Amino acid sequence: MPSTKTFQALPPEDAETLVAVMQRIVPHTNSLLQEAVWETALSYDSQLVTRWALRQQVRKNLHDLDIRARQLHGGSFAGAPPTTQDALLHDIEDTEFFQGLVNATVSDYYNRHVVWEAIGYPGLAQRDGAGYLHKGFDRMGGRGGNAQWQEQPCGCPLMNQLTW
To answer: Most buried residue, 1, 25, 108, 120, by most Cβ within 10 Å?
Structure first.
């Protein structure tokens, strides 16, 4: 596991399973993106420190995944091949636990600047500090539904006929 930071709420075997599940939710192979998965798991774990009931539910579900992986694969969920992991996750995809974990993973993971850079998303400030204000949305004029394009944004004939 890439980071020197440690989990606070989950023991190592549960943390390893959590990271493996999150790696299947956002399956990137780039090492920087794998580090972001680790950071996402650490962030999720930090929320479990004070949420005892949720921590117990998460631990039970991670333990159940490990048990099922051992039955199907003979080893832990984290050590199972991706196809086995995917099959096990498919079995629980409609559960409240898994849906909550998907939401938490995607929300945290795709809110990291290293991920934005890797997937080519310029970020909310468009990296130039100007935001979206002067990126074409300010080309509309008029009031009361009579707005028309002040400039032609492209050579597209349909866009040139646009009136509101």
So the answer is: 108
Q: What is the pLDDT of residue 126?
A: 57
**Burial call 111-137: b when 16+ CB within 10 Å, e when fewer:** ebeebeeeeeeeeeeeeeeeeeeeeee
Which residue is it, tokens 């962030």?
43
Higher local confidence (pLDDT), 96 or 146: 96
Structure tokens at 37: 């998965």
d(CA 61, CA 144): 55
- CA–CA gap between residue 11 and residue 17 (Å, rounded): 10
Q: Tokens 């009031």: give the residue.
A: 143
Cα 148 versus chain centre, distance = 38
| Angle at the Cα of 22 from the Cα atoms of 42 and 92, rounded to 5 degrees | 125
Q: Could you tell me the two tokens for 19? A: 């990271």
**Helices then strands, each counted (H, E), the chain:** 7, 0
List residues bridging with 59 in a β-sheet. Answer: none
Q: Above 70 in pLDDT, residue 61?
A: yes
- For residue 90, the surrounding DSSP H or E stretch is helix 82-92
Residue pLDDT, tens place only, 140-155: 454 444 444 444 444 4
